[in-house]
Amino acid sequence: MTGSQSMTVPRFRGLKGKTKIAMVTAYDFPTARLVDQAGVDAILVGDSLAMVVQGHTTTLPVALEEMIYHAEMVARAVSHALIVVDLPFPTYFANPQAAIDAAARVLKRTHCHAVKLEGGSEQAPTIEALTRAGIPVMGHVGLRPQSVHQMGGYRVQRDVERLREDALTAQQAGAFSVVLECVPASAAEQLSRLLEIPTVGIGAGAGCDGQVLVLHDLLGLTGETAPRFVKAYADLAGTIRQAVQTYCEEVRTGTFPDADRSYR
Ligand code: KIV
Questions:
Q1: What domains are there in the chain, each with its CATH number?
Q2: Rounded to whole angstroms, how far apart are CA atoms 184 and 163?
């Protein structure tokens, strides 16, 4: 993070046009501590944990209590970054009051700073109600993984008019930032110029005000084929496999533990 101050929602908003925003996901204490120490501006306790940590094939199964469980661990580890927690499917769909109830539970229990929800125009009343209740909201438009069945898969979203309408409506409703997921780079760049709030892209090109990646993808920890937009900055899957293989060999050959690692 820029400087040693803790990030707040107004400071995060104020980064637009000054410096690009770096955001990653984290779901537990040790990784949250490391990414905070590494200087990210914001951490997303994403509902992607349903796929990355829990092993589901979509984000739909994760429960609000499970999101809270992970967000609590993250909040304990973080001193600087802004922490945003995903509201999981379908906790905010019924009506704005349901969303306030879910988001209030998240903020009260976890001490995180903000919530994220998927949707633009259709979620405007909910974003407005949350903002009026003092709960900062990050919007999420373009590919909305919680609607994967309705959208027919994880595809690039090319309806530029709809993207514009969704992002502008989220801003008007009070969102302090908006995630643009899997949209053409040219559309994301135009939207980023049009909006007053920061855009945070994932699969949305370099023209966004910031970027977010799933930490396990960034670290090469999933060991699976990643989407085109992912850049793995390390091969932790290989490192972990190699380390554990060596450990198994040393246990089996009796070279671990050696005298230095045994008590006299
Ligand atoms: O849950 C998540 O990790 C997300 C990012 C993909 C933006 O919503």
A1: 9-233 (3.20.20.60), 236-264 (no CATH)
A2: 10
Q: Which of 42, 47, 50 is nearest to 24 (CA)?
A: 42
| Minimal-distance CA residue to ligand 1 atom 8 | 46
Query: How confident is the model over 3-21, as pLDDT tens digits?
Result: 567 999 999 999 999 999 9
**pTM to 2 decimals?**
0.97
Judge whether 181 counts as a catalytic residue: yes
Q: What is the pLDDT of residues 140-197, one digit of tens each?
A: 999 999 999 999 999 999 999 999 999 999 999 999 999 999 999 999 999 999 999 9
Q: Which of 9, 7, 23 is nearest to 209 (CA)?
A: 23
For ligand 1, atom 5, the nearest C-alpha belongs to 46
The rounded Å distance from CA 61 to ligand 1 centre is 15
The owner of tokens 């090109």 is: 205
- The one-letter amino acid code at 71 reads A
The rounded distance, in Å, linking the Cα atoms of 224 and 95 is 38
Burial class (CB in 10 A: 0-12, 13-18, 19+), 4: exposed
169 CA → ligand 1 middle, Å: 20
